[in-house]
């Protein structure tokens, strides 16, 4: 019998018309029934403050609990100034603390970076992977997903209409499902 896995989807953009969110939505629609994928929102989170470790704000505690409840992690993010958007880094920091009590550790993950530019937010993808190494998140190495020219991939309703990108993301999702089965805690 296949176990159903909760996958927390983290979107690095807070923008309403975010291309990253559209890519995340497309990926969620491609997931096999064994994966229950849900976007865990990060826009409501206060700035992380180490002084609050013993008594974190309610929104931060609730977010960390959502990560704790997940078996796997999918990050879909734009690039800001060649790195990870501050809102996503803040969310990562929040669920990583107090020291020794990170919610991320051991959960298999994957990274998709998205940009209207040609380079597909390569810098953000790898800056994020740097944090994931420290957080003990085994991040799927292949296929790498740098989604470039994002403004050309969707119709007016936000549906992913580009055939080759759809095909690529379908392969990506199939590989991620296998990665989760290989690396998730039982
Ligand atoms: C503060 C800021 C910095 C940005 N830096 C980069 C960058 O380094 N590389 C890049 O490809 N795009 C950069 N962009 C453009 C974003 O890729 C673009 O705004 C994109 O639509 C954001 O992703 P979203 O559609 O998911 O919100 C930047 C945008 C902002 C607002």
Describe this structure in words.
The relative contact order is 0.18. The longest helix has 21 residues, at 163-183. A five-stranded parallel sheet has the order 2-1-3-4-5, with helices on both faces. It has helices spanning 19-30, 58-69, 86-94, 122-134, 163-183, and strands at residues 5-11, 35-39, 72-77, 109-114, 145-147. It is built from five helices and five strands, in the order E-H-E-H-E-H-E-H-E-H. It is α/β, with parallel strands linked by helices and 186 residues long. The structure holds flavin mononucleotide.
Q: Key features?
A:
186 residues, alpha/beta, five-stranded parallel sheet, 5 helices, 5 strands, 15% strand, binds flavin mononucleotide
